[in-house]
Structures are given as structure tokens and as C-alpha cells.
Design goal:
Blueprint: E1 10-15, H1 19-28, E2 34-39, H2 43-49, E3 55-58, E4 64-67, E5 71-73, H3 76-80, E6 85-88, H4 95-102, E7 112-116, H5 123-131, E8 137-142, E9 147-153, E10 157-163, E11 167-171, H6 177-188, E12 195-197, H7 202-211
Parallel strand pairs: 1-2, 1-6, 2-5, 3-10, 6-7, 7-8, 11-12
Antiparallel strand pairs: 3-4, 8-11, 9-10
Length: 223
């Protein structure tokens, strides 16, 4: 599977400008090897707040980095027409709509790695239902968010909390080992933490179900 060459910038589209998505928009924009696009319904507010330096990302030690996305838009076609990687950070209940919005505009002539962070709640099956007819799309998810993120101010700043020491990646179970390694290589160019490949996407789904299992009816609520 062909992936972006080392001398080419990686086109990364982030969908959603909540805590996680907004942090990524600022942080990834500080990386010289990434072209960052933010797709959000808040595009007007973000663009209005953007200064010449871009978004200030406050690091855990109190210092800051500035990154300005190449594009902030509310138009799906503009956001994904050149994408190599698409990262959904929107809530679970709007993921399906987000995937439907981008499907007509995803590139057909190169691999496109479409994933969710975090990747729980059956994202692999949902994405395959909507994008599975596209042979060049590789579906993936991370078990956890790579960074804690909070206090976003549209167009101005975001705060990065502690990063995870290790990230856990899974792809849709239909994908080949070559496709899995391609995703691993691309995400390793985005996230500095070591990334471990899980044997099945079900590992993400089951982990989330165990952690967030609801109490049995009539059971005492533990707070």
C-alpha cells in the first residue's frame, strides 16, 4: 500500500472542534511535516479568533506553542478532498452524519486513513457501513485519547494535559497486515508516543464496555 512519501507533507483533517479536536488543530499545526485542516460547524468563530500566530497550545510545564491550521472550514468537500488522514473527534451520536458528509469527497486515488479518537462504540462497523465500498479507505481507532485536553478558546488557545505513555491502535478486522502497518506508520508520524497494534478492533469495544458497564437493575449505585 502506497503512503505519503517522506518528502511530502501529510494532509491531516480533524473533524470536530471540541476539547480534543481543537487541541489537535493547534498542536498538529506546529509540526512542519503536517498540513492541518479543521472541519467544524464553529469555523466562523475559530477563524474570527485566529491571530497571526494561530492557536496557542499550553503545555504541561506552562510554556506554549503556536500553530495555525492551513484551513478551518465548515465545508466537507474543502476539508477532505486532499486528505491522507481523517480523525473524527466528534461525539458518538454524530459520527455517522460526519462520515456521510465526507464520503462523497474523500480521495479515490490514494490511501485514506479514517479513524476515531477514541474509537469505541462500534466505530469500525459504522465506518464500514458508510465507507466500506471505498477500497482505498482504511478504518482505524485508538483506544484512548493521546492527550488530555481542556479549556479551548476558539481561535485563541487550548491546554494540553498529560500525554499517554503508550497508545493502542486497532483497524477494522477486514484489513490486511500491510494496511495495518501503513496506518501504524502514518500515525507514528503524528503522535510521538509508542503505538501498539491490537489484534482485533473488538479489543477497543470490549475494553470500553468493561470500563463503562452500567450497574445491574436494582444494584446499589456506587459513587
Amino acid at each position: 500500500m502506497n503512503t505519503p512519501r517522506q518528502n511530502q507533507k501529510l494532509n491531516v483533517t480533524i473533524i470536530g472542534a471540541g476539547n480534543t479536536g481543537y487541541l489537535y488543530a493547534g498542536l498538529f499545526s506546529t509540526y512542519t511535516h503536517i498540513n492541518t485542516t479543521l472541519l467544524t460547524r464553529k469555523a466562523a468563530a475559530v477563524n474570527e479568533g485566529l491571530g497571526a500566530k494561530g492557536i496557542r497550545v499550553q503545555l504541561p510545564d506552562g510554556t506554549g506553542l503556536y500553530g495555525k491550521p492551513a484551513l478551518v472550514t465548515n465545508l466537507a468537500e474543502e476539508a477532505v478532498k486532499n486528505a491522507d488522514v481523517v480523525i473524527l473527534t466528534v461525539p458518538v451520536h454524530v459520527r455517522g452524519k460526519a462520515l456521510e458528509d465526507i464520503e462523497p469527497y474523500l480521495p479515490r486515488n490514494k490511501p485514506v486513513f479514517v479513524g476515531a479518537i477514541p474509537g469505541f462504540s462500534g466505530f469500525d462497523l459504522m465506518a464500514d457501513d458508510i465507507l466500506g465500498h471505498l477500497p482505498n479507505v482504511v478504518i482505524w481507532g485508538l483506544k484512548d485519547v493521546p492527550y488530555m485536553a481542556y479549556a479551548p478558546v476558539p481561535g485563541v488557545s487550548s491546554v494540553l494535559g498529560g500525554p499517554k505513555e503508550t497508545l493502542f491502535l486497532a483497524t477494522h478486522d477486514k484489513h490486511t497486515s500491510e494496511e495495518q502497518q501503513a496506518v501504524l506508520g502514518v500515525l507514528s508520524a503524528i503522535f510521538p508516543a509508542p503505538i501498539e497494534l491490537m489484534s482485533s478492533y473488538l479489543s477497543i469495544t470490549l475494553t470500553h464496555l468493561v470500563i463503562h458497564k452500567s450497574p445491574e437493575p436494582g444494584a446499589p449505585l456506587k459513587i
